[in-house]
């Protein structure tokens, strides 16, 4: 995790520190407030949803493994985190998918090197792969960070990376005006927080979708009830909006039940 987070400069693996609290609000809380927690951006995901549905329907009724198609949620998370939208087969998207999958597999496998750090001096294929994936991730995110810095404005943040940069600037101004000498928010904090939001967003969303799909296949009555509720409150002429959520109580229950039965991270993180 030291390698993954540049010494705990993210949120999940960091130690408690002044960066996580006021004034102004901690980096993530302040940035999410600026960004509106991404809810505005979610309204623009229609093309991604259509592409996913078309890919699933293209099987023509034959059995298929939906896992590759469901990973298209990566495109949604890319748009929310650093404002990038990819076409299917895009080389950069493939790079993103590969490095994220590599990090998830190596971290999920666990390793003695986490328990006994001195073992890092011995040959370790899992650790070598993790370092390689981290290098690819850092190269891509650093490029995105520099692009965002060059085009950052004073208006509404375009994505989470914009919001994090604005939070970094606001924190610096507040410290300067109040004569504070707290630990500053560095580019490493911004990059690692964005990387964490991306990694967590992709893996948790795709895993949750796959489990809910699996349960719906085995419970056709629930499928019918969900579709009935959608037809009644949304219709078939448009996509579901976040503003519809209050009316879609049964669908909300189905999602919550899926996450209850098969929690993405039942024992949380180390």
TrEMBL record:
Keywords: Heme, Iron, Metal-binding, Monooxygenase, Oxidoreductase
Pfam families linked: p450
GO MF term list: heme binding; iron ion binding; steroid 17-alpha-monooxygenase activity
Biological process, per Gene Ontology: hormone biosynthetic process; progesterone metabolic process
Keyword Transport among record annotations: no
Transmembrane segments: none
Entry's family note: Belongs to the cytochrome P450 family.
This protein's name: Cytochrome P450, family 17, subfamily A, polypeptide 2
Lineage, top ranks: Eukaryota, Metazoa, Chordata, Craniata, Vertebrata
């Amino acid at each position: 995790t030291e390698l993954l987070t540049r010494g705990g400069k993210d949120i999940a693996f960091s130690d408690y520190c002044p960066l996580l609290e006021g004034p102004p609000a901690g980096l993530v809380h302040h940035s999410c407030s600026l960004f509106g927690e991404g809810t505005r951006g979610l309204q623009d995901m229609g093309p991604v949803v259509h592409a996913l549905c078309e890919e699933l329907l293209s099987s023509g009724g034959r059995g298929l493994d939906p896992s590759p198609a469901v990973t298209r949620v990566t495109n949604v998370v890319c748009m929310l985190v650093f404002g990038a939208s990819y076409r299917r087969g895009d080389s950069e998207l493939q790079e993103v998918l590969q490095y994220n999958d590599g990090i998830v597999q190596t971290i999920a496998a666990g390793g003695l090197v986490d328990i006994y750090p001195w073992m890092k001096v011995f040959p370790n294929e899992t650790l070598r792969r993790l370092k390689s994936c981290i290098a690819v991730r850092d190269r891509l995110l650093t490029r995105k960070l520099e692009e965002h810095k060059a085009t950052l404005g004073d208006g509404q943040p375009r994505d989470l990376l914009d919001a994090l940069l604005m939070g970094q600037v606001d924190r610096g101004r507040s410290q300067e005006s109040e004569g504070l000498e707290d630990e500053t928010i560095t580019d490493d904090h911004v990059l690692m927080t964005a990387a964490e939001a991306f990694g967590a967003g992709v893996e948790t969303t795709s895993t949750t979708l796959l489990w809910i799909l699996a349960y719906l296949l085995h419970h056709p009555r629930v499928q019918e009830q969900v579709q009935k509720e959608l037809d009644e409150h949304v219709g078939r002429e448009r996509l579901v909006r976040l503003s519809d959520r209050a009316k879609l109580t049964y669908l909300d229950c189905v999602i919550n039940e899926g996450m209850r039965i098969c929690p993405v991270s039942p024992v949380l993180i180390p």
